[in-house]
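Hi R.,

Here are the chain sequences for the assembly we discussed:
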Amino acid sequence: MNGWTGKIVKVDLGRGTQEDVPVSDAARRRYLGGRGLGVRLYADLCPVLTDPLAEENALLFMTGPLTGTLMTSGRTQVISRSPLTGTICDSSSGGSFGAALKGAGIDGLVVQGRAPKPVYLRIHEGGVEVRDAAAFWGLDTQQTQKGLQEEAGGKASVACIGPAGENRVPFAAIMNDKDRAAGRGGLGAVMGAKNLKAVAASGSRPVDIADPAGYKDLASRVDRAVDKNPVTGKSLQVLGTSVLVNIINAHGMYPTENFRRGVFNDAEGTSGEKIAETLLLRQSSCFKCPIGCGRTTRTKDKHGEGPEYETVWAFGANLGISDLAAIAEANYACNELGLDTITMGGTLGCAMELAEAGAWPGGPRWGEAGKLADWVTETAHRRGMGAELALGSKRLAAKYGRPELAMQVKGMEIPAYDPRGAQGMALSYATSNRGGCHMRAYLVAPEVLGHPVFLDRFSTAGKAELVALFQDVSAVVDSAVLCRFLQFAVGISTFAEMLRVVTGLDFGDEELMSVGRRVYTLERLFNNRAGFGRADDTLPPRFFNEEFQTGSSRHRRVRLEEMLDDYYAVRGWDRDGRPRPHTLAELGL
Amino acid sequence: MIELDRAALVKMIDHTELSAHSGEKKIANLCAEARSFGFYAVCVNGAYASYAKKSLAGSGVLLCVVAGFPLGAGTSSAKAFEAGEAVRNGADEVDMVVNVGALRDKKHDLVRDDIRAVVEASRPALVKVILETCYLMDEEIVAGCTLSVEAGAQYVKTSTGFGPFGAFPDHVKLMRRTVGPDIGVKAAGGIKNFKDAWRLIQAGASRLGLSASVGVVEGLSLYKFAPAAWLEEEIPCHICPSRFANLDKQPKAVYAYYKKKCLECPHVATYNKFYE
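And here is the predicted structure of the full complex:
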């Protein structure tokens, strides 16, 4: 079989059994792999209201047909129901873990059940072994990866949890290849609930390619496109994702102190340019990636990876902190302990506003840079103030009687673009299938960066169609399993061409877009059945009721209602946000 | 509205690499992309004409080489020699820069002769005359177009891409109106995505010069799935040269001319306010 290996293994940690999961050729064509096929399999395996931390819940590690082939193809998609949001959730991680799974001969791994004691899974070309992980339980992600790599003779790529996952913090991350993270949605807690400390994979089985000559030509073409594009070929390489700090701040939509302002006066001091001048040791890259957006940095006492744009913001402007070293060290702590930096920072921002408002008198205070790393550590271990912070912002704000102070959608904290400065981004956040997330439809590209078309960021016109389009293209890329940054350099036709040369299947633009639409609609169906509807496709009241008084997004509010009905119409959903029967029939759902 | 498909779009594109710092690797990549996408031509500096010609062998992609680039302020004989040498090195088309200063001084005979010298030295290659519209007022653009046609050029072109701004629909419309349907109009400079390209084509451009060609073609593949977002009426100031006028980089008379246009613009009350 070209592209796919044709093998997905299901391991039941409770029963100690293994079996292959049958997947038809038709299903592969309709869902590709990664996020798409993962969500399909999850929906088939688990009832909608399965408790994310219950033993019967499933956790999937998925590759796609392009994994292990062209550039940026080392990624993995992790899928389950989120303990943070209750929605279907997929989380994408870079590095080379996906390529290692594929090299071991499997397209995906499904984990169900709960092991009676801590275990890890060792995957190689000979199969999947369940091994004792008692010696690793309690270790951080770096120690765990180092130890398991030593056990594997230095060849394995390891995905693991740290103490946060073990303690089932609902925004615990799964870390792989040192500091790459499947961060959002708390799937590390699902892993911890299964007593599964890690998955270590290795293998060198090559991916079968349908058209080797076409593959070679296309690889060169994509390489040139990436090199030439100013985002992938220059900005991300030289300054990393934090190149955005000054740009977003200049647009007056850089959320400051829990989204109360859109301009951070100290932005320059935490920018990508400043990181390059002060902390940067070297650029770092994932598997076969010519972009290399990663930053390996060091402070006076520590070193590690990051901070990336979202993290610089989450621990910086969002908390009124401009101490770059403290931000970096909080980032290192999240990596080591296995926590999502966006939700950690979003929760701290909420906590600081609760404290300032007197709702949580003992809560943390704005600008306390010296305590950042300690708060992270306490959260991972659920002790001290961390016992409260580990709730996440939605539950924390509700507990202290001020739910409106949690900057979240469907329970997931909103990242570093204030939606008052970009109406399309507001719609994107509100309709995201996994909650407040910028990765479902990155409307910042057209509304701020002018890619692939420059749109008036304050207008709502045309945004519904574009959000749906971006959501669908993103679902395609997550299902073929490549890095989203490629979307800056190439479009849907090139993704179709990639699939053709690797799998031999001629998708064409239209069929490929219908794959994206099918995946997005399936996720929506799942969420509908889990109780999410129009009332959940919204934003915190701050964005509708409060305006910035300064900056270039001043005097603006989100006008979601102008877009939501259009969006549902474009999607073929009814006014309550439920896919209509003819939409389901069209997509074969 | 002019309908566009991928095949038609790629045949309007001169895939361009004219940076001072570009070496052979960039030119090789440029030619490989042009071959892969089937662009109409590649456009390079004279030093890379022979290299590009070899790289394009058998592809059907034409070679365009610039002369008097980017200032247009050299002597006519120097421009003519540069053009002739480009053609001897394989150029199918020559993009020359007009003597902008002479055009602004209304030395029309000099301008016409300058263009004619290049046209004659370039035969049988086709000649496009870059007016560098960012330094010109409308009546000078009209004069530049007229003189180009009188001198035997087959195309007029907006910009080098090195000036304070590039191609705008208003300029392309004016140039098309002036030269009529039988002379080509090439829009170049600042074309970054499909919408930029689409706008200029709607305004009357028959050829586009850009380095972001791949992105433009990829943009077309997305446009067809969400045309409303691309076709949404836009704020006119965003695509008006007056908004991009720059006192540091333009002659003060030209800057003042563009700013004066704002005062007479019907959109002034609606849009000409502090916006972003």
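The longest strand of chain B covers residues 62-67. The mean pLDDT of chain B is 94.

Let me know if anything looks off.

Best,
T.
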